[in-house]
Design goal:
Elements lengths: L8 H8 L4 H8 L3 H17 L19 H33 L1 H7 L5 H25 L6 H11 L3 H29 L1
Helix pairs in contact: 3-4, 4-7, 4-8, 6-7, 6-8
Length: 188
């Protein structure tokens, strides 16, 4: 029996999000210890600015002379740290934006109440689940991180808890992805 060819996650992401294939390619070909720097920077940028899927870091070859398990653990640690750092930056931007009112004024001009809907949903999740809700929202593979990060950034005030929640959520997302891929491969 021939196994079906798996479509790279980055190819799926490019069908959904704008073309950042050059950055995705950089991550997917990252090797050596410098590859960890690329993963960190990519994860940092994904947290606050780039639309895209953070799971592609799992496909970086790295070639560090480590076991596959150790390599994945290191990727998850570096990516989670990068995303936590990027989320703190987004947290700062979110607070500055909230205070300036610029985004709210621009969104108020739209025919759809984007701010009202987003704020209501984010407030419901934040009130019910707090930082655990942020971590859980970030565990959903394929969902843009920036949406959850900015929604919570406007509502919350604790940088350290925010960074911890984004680290846990980011690492959880990659773990869920690895477990999901492994489970799918069992059935192929």
């Amino acid at each position: 029996m021939t196994l079906p060819a798996l479509v790279p996650l980055s190819d799926l992401a490019l069908g959904i999000y704008p073309d950042f294939s050059w950055l995705s390619s950089l991550v997917e070909t990252a090797t050596g210890w410098f590859g960890l720097v690329i993963i960190f920077v990519y994860s940092f940028l994904i947290a606050f600015a780039l639309p895209g899927v953070s799971e592609i870091v799992l496909f970086a070859p790295l070639n560090l002379g480590l076991s596959e398990t150790a390599k994945l653990a290191l990727i998850i640690l570096v990516s989670g740290t990068g995303k936590a750092a990027g989320s703190v930056f987004a947290f700062y931007i979110g607070h500055e934006t909230k205070e300036s009112g610029f985004v709210e004024r621009a969104l108020d001009r739209l025919p759809v109440d984007v701010m009202g809907w987003t704020e209501r949903r984010a407030i419901e999740i934040a009130q019910k689940w707090g930082y655990a809700g942020l971590a859980l929202a970030l565990c959903v593979p394929g969902f843009p991180d920036t949406l959850s990060i900015y929604a919570f950034a406007v509502l919350e005030d604790d940088y350290l808890k925010f960074a911890a929640a984004t680290f846990v959520g980011s690492a959880g997302r990659l773990i869920v992805t690895v477990v999901g891929i492994e489970a799918a491969l069992v059935f192929l």
